[in-house]
């Protein structure tokens, strides 16, 4: 056994830097070997750049991971998670060597891919390649907006940069192209990407499927581009300084690296990408790096001392910021009060009172009343920001009073994501991770499929993102089945931590927004109609506020023989069908279930009281999947078992059986 107690003692300058970099590499090697699972190639290849960034340029204070003005770091290539974990440990975040030893194990704080945990210094959840790049763009947007809102000529309380590391795999995913395009268009000058350009993916050399002229691609999209040797630490430092000096556009540093750097037999090959080096290769790699071959999870004291400087500088940086922040608060108390509402997600106590009341005599699409509610809520809660994927004339989510976010108007609150649903979802997640803002995005419901990876990441990270999905059913009409969602509601309902809300009428739409703003434990999807719906008479029916319970008895009928369940636009159909059935001697209760997730959160006693013990029939213009939970084994489902069709929506209602007469007839036949 090699005596490593004094290893590295007395080293200074570049030799100490090399020792620190190799510490990062060997921590990654050891954790992955112990787990017998993981991706050593990226941590070994990116260690030089990451070390320079984290120790010399990244503004952060490990003693306070929640410092609002810290720089943000995103490891978009999340499979290289041991790079991040090693850095967090060495810098003094609450991640111990034992945590590194538990890499990829049950209950550990070091899962295979990073999961959003600000207390540990993990800024977002990454894994699906490219999502982190979109998150980083969202963080940079949030920084620009908050700087415009809170900074003054005398005090700059928001002034930080977002950094991200991407690999060859990230750049092949379409979401990155969308994110790069929007970032360049917006001129996000406080956004810096490092491209770990090692020419390797899982299958082998990138030439198998990838020959993009990456520098030209970035330049065409409006980025500042530098190409360097990613193992030359001084070149990394010069490139970072140059990137920081460019403030009118985002920057990318394309660093040519060797995957698995230091491994005699695996460096530069796809064998280094996604599997442990193996016991023998670990030994000869450590020898090649000048490391004690038998030492595991070794952090030399000289390295500890070097990273203590990072903690000291971080504490000093935050102390300077705190002093400036205190002066800013004293100079501008009203702006300081707004700061607390933004960063602590404080909403007005009377927020519901701000909601407009729909005209009871005038039917309306819930997308329209949703837009009216959004306007009122944005006036009351200035931290709400968002936009559409080029669809705000249809989704009704543009509030003209608040302008369009652009290079010249960073304080504007309407975002134009362009026809980029993939990136929109990832950007919204980044805004939510950044903190200080409540983001929403909108598109047609059928295009939720384009956001699905980002929705899943939001659910996994429990990010309070709001999705406004309009044109929520086959009643889109003439656009036909390509634009008519039949399976999307079911697919979102099966995702853990996602709250789906489909309001029944215009008066419930504002309450759906209230529910979304109250939900801080995950994303919320609002499903809104294109077609007009009648306004339910709340003097006759229970208050629209009952939407917050997720389900309630809308119509109770003495002597009822069955219960009709419905959501969204089909609730009015259920009420009308109940009237027909009553006239035929088959009285029915009607239950509105706008949100299964909110309903599930109620007590078992409440749910049983609402659902009752009578036979149940459900009506929804979508697929059956999931309805078994509320219908039981023998309930009747009236919905879709195919894609839609192209026709005016009244025709579709008739042909697919979503009219009161058709519903009543089917229920009557079923009850015989």
What would a concise description of this structure say?
This protein has 672 residues and is α/β, with parallel strands linked by helices. The chain is 42% helix and 13% strand. Strands 10-9-11-12-14-13 form a six-stranded parallel beta sheet, with helices on both faces. The chain has a five-stranded parallel beta sheet with strand order 1-2-3-7-6, with helices on both faces.
Topology:
Elements: H1 13-35, H2 41-57, E1 72-75, H3 81-91, H4 97-101, H5 131-150, E2 162-167, H6 168-172, H7 174-186, E3 191-197, E4 200-201, E5 204-205, H8 214-220, E6 224-229, H9 233-245, E7 251-256, H10 279-288, H11 301-331, H12 333-343, E8 364-365, H13 366-380, E9 384-388, H14 392-395, E10 414-416, H15 421-434, E11 438-444, H16 448-461, E12 466-470, H17 488-493, E13 499-501, H18 506-518, E14 524-527, E15 532-533, E16 552-555, E17 562-566, H19 570-583, E18 588-592, H20 596-600, H21 604-611, E19 616-619, H22 628-631, E20 636-638, H23 649-655, H24 660-671
Parallel strand pairs: 1-2, 2-3, 3-7, 6-7, 9-10, 9-11, 11-12, 12-14, 13-14, 17-18, 17-19, 19-20
Antiparallel strand pairs: 4-5, 8-15, 16-18
């Amino acid at each position: 056994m090699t005596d490593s107690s004094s290893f590295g003692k007395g080293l200074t300058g570049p030799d100490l830097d090399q020792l620190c970099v190799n510490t990062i590499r060997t921590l990654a090697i050891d954790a992955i070997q112990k787990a017998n699972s993981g991706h050593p190639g990226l941590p070994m290849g990116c260690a030089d750049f990451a070390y320079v960034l984290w120790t010399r340029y990244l503004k952060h204070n490990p003693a306070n991971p929640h410092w609002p003005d810290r720089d943000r770091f995103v490891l978009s290539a999340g499979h290289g998670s041991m790079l991040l974990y090693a850095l967090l440990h060495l810098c003094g975040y609450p991640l111990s060597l034992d945590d590194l030893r538990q890499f990829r194990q049950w209950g550990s704080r070091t899962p295979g891919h990073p999961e959003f945990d600000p207390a540990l210094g993990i800024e977002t959840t990454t894994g699906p390649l490219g999502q982190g790049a979109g998150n980083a763009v969202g963080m940079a947007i949030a920084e620009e907006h908050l700087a415009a809102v809170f900074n003054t000529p005398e005090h700059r309380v928001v002034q930080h940069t977002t950094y991200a590391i991407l690999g060859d795999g990230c750049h092949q995913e379409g979401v990155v192209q969308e994110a790069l395009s929007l970032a360049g268009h917006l001129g996000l000058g406080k956004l810096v990407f490092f491209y770990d350009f090692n020419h390797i993916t899982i299958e082998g050399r990138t030439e198998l499927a990838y020959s993009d002229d990456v520098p030209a691609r970035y330049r065409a999209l409006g980025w500042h581009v530098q190409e360097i040797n990613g193992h030359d630490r001084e070149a990394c430092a010069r490139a970072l300084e140059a990137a920081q000096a460019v403030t009118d556009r985002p920057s990318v540093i394309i660093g040519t690296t060797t995957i698995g750097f230091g491994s005699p037999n695996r460096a530069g090959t796809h064998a280094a990408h996604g599997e442990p080096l193996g016991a023998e290769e670990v030994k000869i790699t450590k020898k090649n790096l000048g490391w004690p071959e038998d030492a595991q999870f070794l952090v030399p004291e000289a390295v500890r001392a070097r990273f203590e400087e990072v903690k000291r500088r971080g504490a000093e940086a935050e102390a300077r910021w705190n002093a400036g922040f205190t002066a800013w608060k004293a100079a501008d108390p009203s702006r300081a009060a707004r700061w607390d509402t933004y960063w602590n997600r404080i909403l007005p106590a009377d927020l519901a009172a701000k909601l407009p009341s729909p005209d009871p005599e005038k039917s309306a699409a819930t997308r329209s009343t949703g837009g009216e509610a959004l306007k009122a809520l944005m006036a009351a809660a200035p931290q709400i920001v968002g936009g559409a994927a080029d669809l705000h004339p249809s989704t009704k989510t543009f509030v003209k009073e608040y302008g369009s976010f652009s290079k010249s108007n960073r304080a504007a609150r309407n975002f134009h994501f362009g026809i980029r649903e993939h990136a929109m979802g990832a950007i919204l997640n980044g805004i939510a991770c950044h903190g200080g803002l409540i983001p929403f995005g909108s598109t047609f419901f059928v295009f939720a499929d384009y956001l699905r990876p980002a929705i899943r990441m939001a659910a996994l990270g429990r990010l309070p993102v709001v999705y406004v999905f309009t044109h929520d059913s086959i009643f889109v009409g003439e656009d036909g089945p390509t634009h008519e969602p039949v399976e999307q509601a079911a697919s979102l309902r099966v995702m853990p931590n996602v709250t789906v809300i489909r309001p029944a009428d215009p008066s419930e739409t504002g309450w759906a927004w209230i529910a979304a703003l109250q939900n801080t434990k995950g994303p919320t999807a609002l499903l809104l109609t294109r077609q007009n719906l009648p306004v339910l008479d709340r003097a006759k029916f229970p208050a629209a506020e009952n939407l917050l319970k997720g389900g309630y008895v809308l119509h109770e009928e003495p002597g009822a023989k069955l219960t009709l369940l419905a959501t969204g636009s089909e609730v009015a159909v259920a009420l009308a069908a109940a009237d027909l059935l009553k006239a035929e001697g088959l009285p029915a209760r009607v239950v509105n279930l706008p949100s299964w997730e909110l309903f599930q959160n109620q007590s078992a006693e409440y749910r049983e009281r609402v659902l009752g013990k009578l036979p149940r029939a459900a009506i929804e213009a979508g697929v059956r999947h999931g309805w078994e939970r509320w219908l039981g084994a023998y309930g009747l489902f009236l919905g879709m078992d195919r894609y839609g069709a192209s026709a005016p929506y009244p025709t579709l209602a008739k042909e697919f059986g979503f009219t009161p007469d058709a519903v009543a007839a089917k229920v009557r036949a079923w009850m015989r």
